Amino acid sequence: MMFDQHVHSNFSFDSNEDLENYINVSNKNDIVTTEHLDFSNPIINYEDSSIDYLKYIEEIDSLNKKYSNKFFSGIEIGYTPNSEKRIEDFLKDKNFNLKLLSIHQNGLYDYMCVNKKLISLEAFIQEYFEQMIQALESSIEFNVLAHFEYGIRIIDISVAGFDSLASKFLNKIIELIVKKEIAFEVNTKSMYKYKKENLYSYMIEKYLKKGGKLFTLGSDAHNIKDYAYKFDEARKFLLTRNVKEIILFKDKIKMEKI
Ligand SMILES: [Zn+2]
Ligand SMILES: [Zn+2]
Question: What catalytic activity does the UniProt entry give for this protein (predicted)?
């Protein structure tokens, strides 16, 4: 089993799983969780989704004593332009082995919850990806671009339709992640639960063409039963595209054969 680099425990507002329980499903591999940071989060009535950092690190340290250093720390940073300064302030005195960039919301609504009848698909896609570009152009340091298509997980769109509305933004996003050496997350929840394998195939082809080489695998598990969800299928999917390695974010950053 490969290293799952998108995982939540009860340090995230939307998970009830004890961090320690992941040891039972990781098959003796290392574990990293990526807990939510989303300031003014619309889905919890604009409260902040944040991490009790000291408690989190304390828990990781104590688990590392018990399980010989198998646990690593991570954060899923939900970027909005309005929260950029708060994110920078939050991160400046903290260390995480893995920092994901996610676009979940815009300060008004979560992109998965918006009423698509009130906004055209064209305007929606433009807003979503322009926000992603803004995040990538900011001075916040991210390791990985997570679920690049979160906003369209529940929208039925063909690759051709997606290409015509999104490609100019996606080209810019790829240029930025290649330049900044930010890895591209293959999100198995998006690919197999939300059936977006075709969009991943499209995006990965573009990314490889522009010289992109850095991939991670993430299940976006919020409980142990979803840990490394369909990683075998994702592995085959990547090998078919001649992607043979993923990048691991632990104490050291390194490439590993899949
Ligand atoms: Zn997310
Ligand atoms: Zn997540």
Answer: L-histidinol phosphate + H2O = L-histidinol + phosphate
Between strands 35-41 and 74-78, the pairing is: parallel
Which bound ligand lies closest to the C-alpha atom of 220? Answer: 2
Dist. CA 231 → ligand 1 center (Å): 18
For residue 73, the model assigns a pLDDT of: 98
Give dist(CA 30, CA 68) in Å, integer.
Answer: 10
Q: What is the pLDDT of residues 89-119, one digit of tens each?
A: 999 999 999 999 999 999 999 999 987 767 8
Region of 119 please: left (phi>0), alpha (psi -120 to 50) or beta. beta
Angle at 187 between CA 67 and CA 13, to 5 degrees: 65
CATH assignment of 19-257, among 2.40.70.10, 3.40.605.10, 3.20.20.140, 3.40.30.10: 3.20.20.140
Task: Calculate ∠ Cα 214-150-118, nearest 5°.
Answer: 150
Cα of 146 vs centre of ligand 1, distance in Å, is: 7
C-alpha closest to that of 2 among 222, 252, 244: 244
**Cα 158 to Cα 228: distance, rounded to the nearest angstrom:** 27
**Cβ pair 230, 79 in contact under 8 A:** no
Give me 182's structure tokens.
């930010």
